[in-house]
């Protein structure tokens, strides 16, 4: 992802959102329903990987392919880790 004025403005707009409903409305405007589902699925996969779940369980619970799980596994970084820690609070 390139850092530029457009992405900075987009992320600043996200940071203004305060409720799940505001997030739903914002992302409904910004993304297709399929894109939202895909992002949510990848987050769920990352959470399950972080919780040390095995691929078979992740496939069963999320419907993600093993290729998607593998891609998410390679991509888990500080961003997801920060979110997981904050969700625990």
Instruction: Kindly provide the name of the CATH class of the largest domain.
Output: Mainly Alpha
Give the radius of gyration. Answer: 14 Å
Classify the beta-strand content into a percent band: under 5%
**Shape category:** globular
What is the total number of structural domains? 2
For the termini, the CA-CA separation is: 29 Å
Number of helices: 6
Major sheet: none
Write the H/E string, N to C. Answer: HHHHHH
> Level of helix content?
over 70%
Number of strands: 0
Q: Helix/strand-derived class?
A: mainly alpha
Mean pLDDT: 93
Tell me which CATH architecture of the largest domain applies here: Orthogonal Bundle
Write the layout of secondary structure elements.
Layout: H1 5-15, H2 20-30, H3 33-50, H4 55-62, H5 66-75, H6 78-88
Description:
The protein is mainly α and 89 residues long. It folds into 2 domains: 1-30, no CATH class; 32-89, TrpR-like (Trp Operon Repressor, Chain A, Orthogonal Bundle). It contains 6 helices and no strands. The chain has helices spanning 5-15, 20-30, 33-50, 55-62, 66-75, 78-88. The chain is globular. The protein starts with a helix and ends with a helix. The mean pLDDT is 93.
Summed up:
With 89 residues, the chain is mostly helical.
Q: Which key terms come to mind for this protein?
A:
single chain; mainly alpha; Trp Operon Repressor, Chain A; 89 residues
């Amino acid at each position: 992802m390139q850092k530029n004025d457009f992405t900075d403005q987009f992320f600043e707009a996200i940071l203004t959102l305060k409720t799940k409903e505001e997030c739903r409305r914002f992302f409904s405007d910004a993304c297709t329903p399929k894109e939202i589902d895909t992002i949510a699925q990848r987050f769920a996969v990352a959470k399950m990987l972080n919780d040390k779940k095995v691929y078979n369980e992740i496939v069963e619970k999320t419907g993600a392919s093993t290729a998607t799980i593998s891609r998410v596994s390679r991509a888990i970084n500080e961003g997801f880790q920060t979110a997981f820690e904050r969700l625990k609070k």
